[in-house]
């Protein structure tokens, strides 16, 4: 018991002050009932004052992109009028508009508002203006396109030429300083539908209350050394945090025989659209999952749940994801290892993502509740039965605790056994059996007693069948292979690939 108490202290997370809800402004569309309802409901859920909800007069069914003139007319200038009127930003809009229609902003003091949360229904891309020849120029480091979110971060600052990016004063920072005070950090509650956004928010609330529980998947093998180095650090972080981790270095996406149960952390690159295990219709992320796929246009089709990475990840339940609306160039993309390090220190999703964002007036979007803390509930509380009743995700908290390097073998076995008792699952049974086998002890395999075995991840089923066959338990392995054949009867090619693999 003394060792378990010491483990509880070891697993405690770092506490940080909460973001003041009075500093958060929520922006939706007045003509889109779902957008307006989402903005109001989110504000209530986070105790954000009703006066901080701003509904813009955007056209119904607003398009993904706007011109610079429409950005100024429909989004920027109305916010520069409304936020000072509500006492949320100190200053006023006035004077002649510039060539793109933006009213000048005269700042008088630091803004009370520190965050802007844009809701489903608000456009996310400011497109390039055509040149004198009528043609729209291609990508360049001086691109005149930008994400609405990144451009709005400068709302309380004097206008600057929107040709190219500006350094983000929050990059690498955890505390507010003189350079950051006038920047309004932004995030977006968006995805293929308002319903998908609400499901993702519900998962984030569950993870905040009971812990981020599941496994980690890192898909390396991208085209540039620097990006692979970032994801290599992410893999190390996941393992250090105790998450059972699958890392793949092949240049293809995580394939059909890869285990992909309970993805709580997913980081990958460099496919243009979702493929592999992530794209399968039955794939669902763990509640509150932090999920990211690095691609230049990962958020260009933000509301496409099949062809766009950010949209697909939200559709599958991501509590936090991030991406680019147009070509950002690798050095100016959000840094995944900095995001994960910040979250692990107790930062909110918004704080961690902005500390990992090199540039503003650029291409990035942060999608998810910026106040969400994936690591708000320490691991020792997640495995304390006095705090939370068992649910289908409980066993993954025990799996994470048992995976920490500092845990001794006898405590590891006790944790895995308790997790299996409290929340029976194939993942828990497989981990417990492996631990017993490693210690030279016998193990039982009551797979028929497991709930929802037929619903388990196909990759996990295959992994269990391999383990059983290697352990001399051909009958139990055969039962799982039979289950796989039933599951994949409608997909002969995949069935053959999986069963051939299981037979080897």
Characteristic key phrases:
four-stranded parallel sheet; 16 helices; 2 domains; 504 residues
Topology:
Blueprint: H1 2-11, E1 24-29, H2 33-45, E2 53-56, E3 65-66, H3 68-85, E4 91-94, E5 104-107, E6 115-119, E7 125-126, E8 146-147, H4 148-152, E9 166-167, E10 185-189, H5 194-210, E11 215-219, H6 225-240, E12 245-248, E13 263-268, E14 290-293, H7 309-315, E15 320-324, H8 336-344, H9 349-355, E16 359-360, E17 364-368, H10 379-382, H11 394-403, H12 409-422, H13 426-438, H14 458-470, H15 474-487, H16 492-503
Parallel strand pairs: 1-2, 1-6, 3-7, 6-10, 11-12, 11-13, 13-14
Antiparallel strand pairs: 4-5, 7-8, 9-16, 15-17
**Overall pLDDT level:** 90
Strand order of the largest sheet: 2-1-6-10
Number of strands: 17
Residue share in β-strands? 5-15%
Net shape: elongated
The radius of gyration over CA amounts to 24 Å
Instruction: Supply the number of helical segments.
Output: 16
Going by helix content, strand content and strand pairing, the class is alpha/beta
Largest sheet: 4 strands, parallel
Distance between the amino and carboxyl termini:
43 Å
Amount of helix: 25-40%
Number of self-contained structural domains: 2
Unreliable segments (pLDDT under 50, ≥5 consecutive)?
A: none
């Amino acid at each position: 018991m003394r060792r378990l108490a010491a483990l509880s202290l070891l697993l405690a997370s770092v506490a940080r002050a909460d973001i003041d809800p009075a500093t958060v402004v929520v922006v939706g569309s007045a003509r889109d009932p779902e957008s307006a309802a989402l903005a109001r409901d989110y504000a209530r859920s986070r105790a954000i004052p009703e006066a901080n909800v701003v509904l813009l007069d955007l056209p119904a069914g607003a398009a993904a992109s706007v011109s610079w003139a429409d950005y100024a007319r429909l989004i920027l200038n109305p916010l520069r009028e409304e936020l000072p009127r509500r006492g949320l930003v100190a200053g006023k809009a006035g004077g002649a508009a510039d060539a793109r229609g933006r009213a000048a902003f005269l700042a008088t003091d630091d803004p009370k508002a520190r965050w802007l949360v844009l809701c489903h229904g608000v456009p996310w891309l400011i497109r390039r203006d055509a040149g004198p020849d009528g043609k729209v120029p291609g990508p360049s480091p001086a691109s005149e396109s930008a994400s609405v979110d990144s451009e709005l971060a400068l709302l309380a600052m004097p206008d600057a030429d929107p040709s190219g990016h500006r350094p983000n004063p929050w990059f690498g920072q955890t505390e507010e300083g003189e350079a950051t005070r006038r920047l309004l950090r932004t995030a977006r509650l968006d995805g293929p539908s308002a319903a998908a956004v609400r499901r993702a928010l519900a998962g984030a609330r569950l993870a905040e209350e009971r812990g981020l529980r599941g496994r980690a998947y890192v898909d390396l093998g991208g085209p540039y050394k620097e990006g692979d180095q970032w994801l290599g650090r992410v893999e190390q972080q996941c393992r250090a945090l105790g998450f059972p981790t699958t890392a793949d270095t092949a240049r293809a996406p995580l394939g059909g025989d890869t285990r992909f149960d309970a993805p709580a952390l997913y980081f990958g690159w460099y496919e243009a659209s979702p493929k592999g295990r992530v794209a399968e219709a039955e794939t669902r992320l763990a509640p509150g999952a932090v999920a990211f796929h690095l691609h230049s246009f990962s958020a260009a089709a933000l509301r496409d749940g099949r062809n766009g990475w950010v949209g697909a990840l939200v559709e599958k339940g991501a509590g936090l994801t991030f991406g680019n609306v147009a070509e950002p160039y690798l050095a100016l993309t959000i840094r995944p290892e900095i995001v994960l390090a910040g979250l692990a220190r107790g930062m909110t999703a918004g704080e961690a993502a902005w500390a990992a964002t090199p540039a503003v007036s650029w291409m990035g979007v942060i999608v998810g509740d910026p106040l969400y803390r994936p690591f708000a509930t320490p691991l020792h509380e997640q495995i304390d039965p006095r705090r939370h009743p068992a649910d289908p995700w409980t066993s993954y908290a025990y799996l994470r605790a048992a995976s920490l390097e500092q845990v001794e073998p006898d405590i590891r076995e006790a944790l895995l056994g308790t997790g299996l008792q409290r929340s029976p699952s194939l993942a828990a049974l497989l981990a417990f059996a492996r631990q017993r086998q490693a210690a030279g002890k016998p193990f039982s395999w009551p797979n028929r007693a497991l709930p929802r075995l037929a619903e388990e991840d196909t990759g996990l089923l295959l992994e269990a069948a391999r383990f059983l066959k290697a352990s001399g338990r051909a009958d139990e392995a055969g039962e799982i292979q039979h289950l796989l054949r039933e599951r994949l009867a409608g997909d002969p090619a995949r069935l053959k690939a999986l069963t051939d693999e299981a037979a080897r």
